[in-house]
Amino acid sequence: MNELMTPAHTLSELLLLGNARTVSDWIESLTPSETARAISRLSETERTLLFNLLSPEDAAEIIEEISDTQAADLVEEMTSERAAAIIKEMPSDHQADLLSEMDEETRQAILSKMHRREAKEARILMDYKKDCAGGLMVGEFLAFKTNATIQNVLDDLQENRGEYVNYSVQYFYVVDRDRKLVGVVRINDLLFPARKTLLKDIMLSNPLSVSDQATLRDLHEFFEQHHFFGVPVVDDKQRLVGVVHPAAIEEAVSKQKTRAFLKVSGIIGGEEFRTMPLLSRSGRRLSWLSLNIVLNIMAASVIAMYQDTLAAVIALAVFLPMVSDMSGCSGNQAVAVSMRELALGLVRPGELLWVLFKELKVGIINGLVLGLLLSFVAIIWKGNLWLGLVVGGALAANTLVSVMLGGMLPLILKRLKLDPALVSSPLLTTVTDMCGFFFVLSFATILMPKLGGI
After folding, report:
1. Reduced to 3 DSSP states, what percent helix, strand and coil does the chain have, rounded to the nearest 5?
2. Which residues make beta-bridge pairs with 143?
3. Cβ neighbours, 10 Å, residue 34
4. Which long-range contacts (CB under 8 A, 24 or more apart) does 317-321 make?
5. Which is nearest to 355 in space by CA: 418, 410, 395?
6. Which three-class secondary structure state does DSSP give residue 145?
7. Strands 210-211 and 204-205, bridge-based pairing
């Protein structure tokens, strides 16, 4: 085979040969990113052929390596029977994540083809928020009653070894008759005691656990303090419902950062890939860009109000973008600090006055320094002290406004149950532009006789 061919071309040729083992072995030789790229470049017919050719186990392994959004698109192209067979081979948390990305009709069709117990478990996991313990836990764990013996455990492991081989087992959990968590048994605890020993006699009582409503931040802090292979998850009645692994937390934190970055960048509705339908991609971007058109028209209207002043003192046109941009940068710094403190719980949405006072002091200092610098530039360039006073004063005033607003805006939006990461930036940009233009042009209008048409 030509070594210069791309993975997608190679995969297309292998699919034509129709040898499932050859295709599976070749895909295993690729990195996850190469796999995702190769599959995304296939035609819909070729993707259908690929996942019909592979065994459900091999197909599930491939789907687990690509993003949930891409995976959902791939699975939605399959028949519900084939999709159910593949999803069955995935861990319960991945099943829930993948099904959550699909439309309701497709999701229900696939669930109807799954085993009743597995479908019920998937529905339970999907009811949780994605970034809480319930949404991140797996349902594959081993739990035994307090009156079970070591021999009972060993017999169960032998009898169900085909199912348990895919579990990530580091601990055995001990529950009472109501499935309340009462203890944990390590694997090596089973090796030496007599086979008739009861689990309640060798278990570690009152093990650490987390609530199924624990937040991602809570879980991240837990694993920073406790280097466990996993932590049991309990509901409000202390019943064992799942296990969270540290790898799931790391993945969720990474996804959270990605979502925040995409929102700030104006990508609405989740991840976007260039293999998605054209109209879907265009619509996601336009929903953000259309809002920005309206906001920019509002800012430009201020210039229209003072067009005579701008025409009389044309040098102001040079300083308008400088005042608005520099103020915007100062405001975005304050936004970033507030967003970070909100995420860490260091500030609450109701602490507006405290944030205002803190940012007021920074705004005064930074506004004066930046205003003096810009005044100096204006005076050196045009030799007019009054021009320096206009642009320097405008920058100082606008910096103070943008810093105070930037600090408070995320808190206000959070209190209104809006997404601060999505709304803060365009609102701040519009206000700083409007205020910057207003300060420059209104100050210039007042001092017009001193500017002398420079």
Report:
1. 65, 5, 25
2. 173
3. 15
4. 319/374, 319/378, 319/391, 319/394, 319/440, 320/436, 320/437, 320/440
5. 410
6. strand
7. unpaired
Which positions ≥6 away from 79 have C-beta within 8 Å? none
Which pTM does this prediction carry? Answer: 0.57
- CB-CB contact of 112 with 122 (8 Å): no
pLDDT in tens, the chain (454 residues): 444 467 778 888 888 888 888 888 888 888 877 887 788 778 878 888 888 888 888 888 888 877 777 788 888 888 889 889 988 888 888 888 888 888 888 889 999 988 888 888 888 888 888 889 998 898 888 899 989 999 999 999 888 887 777 777 778 899 999 999 999 998 888 888 899 999 999 998 989 999 999 998 899 899 999 888 889 999 989 999 989 999 888 888 877 776 665 555 455 555 555 556 666 666 666 666 666 677 777 777 887 888 878 777 788 888 888 998 888 888 888 888 888 788 767 788 888 899 999 999 999 999 999 999 999 999 998 888 999 999 999 999 999 999 999 999 889 888 887 767 666 677 788 888 889 889 999 999 888 888 866 6
* Residue ranges in 192-313 assigned as alpha helix (H): 199-202, 216-225, 246-264, 278-305, 307-312
| CATH entry, 143-264, from 3.30.70.3300, 3.40.710.10, 3.10.580.10, 3.40.50.1580 | 3.10.580.10
Q: How far apart are CA 114 and CA 122, in angstroms?
A: 10
244: which strand partners?
A: 231
CATH number of 278-451: 1.10.357.20
Record the tokens describing residue 373, joined without a space. Answer: 């610098």
Cβ atoms < 10 Å from Cβ of 313: 25
Return the domain boundaries, the chain: 7-127, 143-264, 278-451
Containing H/E element for 134? Answer: helix 133-136
How far is 367 from 400, CA to CA, in rounded Å?
A: 6
